[in-house]
Amino acid sequence: MQYSMGIDAGGTYTDSIIIRDSDGKVMDSNKALTTYPDLLAGIKNSIDGLDEQYLKDVKMVSVSTTLATNTILEKNGYPVGLILVGDYEVPERMQAEYYTVVKGGHDHHGAELTSLDMEAVEAFVNKVKDRVSAFAVSSYFSIRNPAHELAIKARLKELGFSVVCGHELSLDLGAYERGITAYLNAQLIPIASQFILSIREEIRRRGMDARLLMLKCDGSVVGINEALEKPIESIFSGPAASLVGASHLSGLETCAVIDVGGTSTDVSMLENGLPELCSEGAVVGGWQTKVKAIRMETSAMGGDSHVWVKNMKINIGPRRVIPLCVAAVKYPGFLEILKKGRIPGTMHLEENIQPTKFFIRTGLEASNLGSYEKELFDRIGDTPASLNDIFWETQKTLSPGLLDSLLRKRLIQAIGFTPTDALHVLGDYRGWNTEASVAGAKLLERYTHKDYIELCKSIKKDVAKNMALNLMSFVLKDVPSQEIEKIIVSDRFAQFKMKIPVVLIGGPVVAYTEELNRILDADIIVPEYSDAGNAVGAVVGKGIKRVEILIKSAYTKDKKRLVLLFSPQGRETFGSYPEALEYAESLGRRLVMEYMTEAGLDKGRVQIEMSKKDIALSEAGTMPVESKLVFVGIGMPKV
């Protein structure tokens, strides 16, 4: 008997699950805390809880993670320098901290418009090289000719820097969006490398002879080598896994899925077994990318989002923290620290200054810290401490903003009150230390008009409202979310009705079903193993590869007709249309099969479909001026 194992490393929990290959039955599952920032211990603990009789016969391991998504949402990515080549319109509120625009670029036929200004590139690199970990490059119409991107990459590699090019990630139009995609990809590579290599090492250590795959954000699996190069494609692999897993666990091919994770809430939908993909590319954390992902509605509110109070108002998120109930188990003595903590004044309250907010080192070694950063870091040890405690110890005013810098560098992590704590107070969930949650709620009630029970009920209601808002914003995508919210928060005589079942996935989601039913008229389903739905989705995903090839007519300066072919391999020139078409059909199928082989999928079980769309000047059978060929291959893991 052979089995497959799915692993999902989320922001809070790492789930592992064993599925029997012959019929897809779940045989065993286990949940462990995700260990931060080194994921290996959490992965090991999760696998340790599985029955060893199955592990020896596991032949495939597939993983998914929300870590890339959470990194972008929490703005904790590694610093990257963005180089834009060509005539760009850069938004006024550019989110990239380090970027430049230099001369260069090509036209839609791949001909050079302006020569590349390599001196400007090198000047920018020398300016920011001590402040970034890698560079991202996007050149105008690099999808027609990537020569300028490749020239910059070669030069920067000579100087010893890591470089990601836009054309390597997307062949869609939109040079700026390709640049953003490359920028985010470069931010995520160190994080993805640590995650994937940790799993690979753990599989080897256990003597398991298993192939390693990773779930992409379109719900398909990918070979691990490509996952290392393109971690941006995993930005929504956690939610994609929840969609695939929810369908498998519920037996439904048409349903809406709400996935409540530690950091975010994600909504998506399957119709007849197929998800809808984003036509413009995935949007995450306000960034428009060119990544082909499942269309979803996502918000930075999850079970472990930080609950904080300012001006008597309760705020939830966007950052994830370690819940008080978990910290009380994880760190001996923390409960006493929580109870005896100094209470900040109402006027001083902000996100990092709360009666329930504490900080602790992650274990990473600090380097290249400024003097003020170092002073603050030295005051934070292996015992949780609040900024208020540090102030009384040093008698110095320390900027809360310094904490953000240390958090981004993953040198410290935060502890705070969360919706998970609220569920503990209300008795809806008792997985950790309830006393710590109650103590935290009683501290927060001093800054609101509610007692601690009402405070927790309000938090639970807000999370349920957020789930409903995400769901209806997804379904009614052309309706402004503000209008949808008016109906959701109204206590009047109208509510939304769902015509298809709604499947809940993640942690203690069953606790929200009653509250959600008060807001929505829907058939809400919480299937068995819903708390490990992402791990299930990781292991039941198919291999899908999409290859696009464009054939265009062009003319030389002396008006000689040429045929240009643009593919993931670059630009090629042919003397005739039939010659180019024959080559394109062969190339597309070959690229699909190479991908499937690299991913470790069964070549004998790959189905390839080709669609062709022509643009012609007349219907008289003349040669098209443009042909677009799309190859879609679907493969299954080897059994």
From TrEMBL:
GO terms for biological process: glutathione metabolic process. Transmembrane segments: none annotated. SUPFAM superfamilies: Actin-like ATPase domain. Residues 5-159 form the Hydantoinase/oxoprolinase N-terminal domain. InterPro entries: ATPase_NBD (IPR043129), Hydant_A_N (IPR008040), Hydantoinase_A (IPR002821), Oxoprolinase-like (IPR045079). This is Hydantoinase. One of its GO terms (cellular component) is cytosol. One of its GO terms (molecular function) is 5-oxoprolinase (ATP-hydrolyzing) activity. Residues 178-319 form the Hydantoinase A/oxoprolinase domain.
